[in-house]
Design goal:
Elements: H1 14-27, H2 32-36, H3 43-56, H4 63-77, H5 80-93, H6 98-102, H7 115-130, H8 135-142, H9 147-169, H10 177-202
Length: 203
């Protein structure tokens, strides 16, 4: 099934054209969310989404926990684009965390998760699914996180929900970023192996 609105491949305006150029150079393609949503909106909206990723760097939570929360919210909302994007991030930036991401459906029992992460994921799941949080769930959260960190978690849930609803509302599914990252990784490894063989032969 395609997106509800047709993708725009030739956006108007210098800013969007530059954004498309740099995204294509980084990822090998322009993400569908840009082609369907951002290309139709004033540039300030794209700037906001860019700033959102910058704000994540100001969080006091460990980046590992932040990624898990975003992925859990996206999974609960069934935003295939965001689920794929989070997995791409782990594959390309933190490959050692891939096993933990794969075990996310079993976070309550898996030994790969800390009690603090379980409390944060319980909170994020309940808030996303029920649009409210039980006092007992919040009480468990306070045993592991201070007030600033709790606000960080709320920000992650709320901002991820915005991302999810934007994509779901326009029928934007997985963009195949994971497959692209894996192909790129295999190609890079092949080039590295070939360079190593050539170096051995030259000796």
């Amino acid at each position: 099934m395609g997106t509800y609105l047709p993708p725009i491949d030739k956006p108007r305006g210098v800013y969007l054209k530059l954004a498309f150029f740099f995204v294509r150079r980084q990822f090998g393609k322009v993400m569908m969310s840009m082609r369907v949503f951002a290309a139709r909106m004033p540039t300030a909206f794209m700037s906001y989404y860019y700033k959102m990723s910058k704000l994540d760097k100001k969080l006091q939570l460990p980046s590992q926990t932040a990624v898990l929360i975003r992925e859990q919210v996206a999974t609960t909302n069934m935003c295939l684009f965001c689920m794929d994007a989070a997995r791409w991030y782990v594959i390309t930036r933190e490959p050692g965390d891939l096993a933990r991401l794969d075990a996310l459906p079993d976070y309550q029992t898996s030994p790969l998760f800390t009690d603090a992460q379980r409390a944060a994921l319980d909170y994020a799941t309940e808030l996303t699914r029920d649009k409210q949080v039980q006092p007992a769930t919040f009480a468990r959260l306070t045993r592991h996180y201070n007030e600033r960190e709790i606000c960080d978690i709320v920000w992650l849930v709320a901002s991820e929900h915005l991302n999810n609803m934007t994509n779901i509302g326009l029928g934007i599914g997985s963009d195949g970023l994971c497959e692209l990252a894996q192909r790129t990784g295999k190609a890079a490894k092949a080039r590295s192996d070939a360079a190593g063989k050539n170096a051995t032969v030259s000796r």
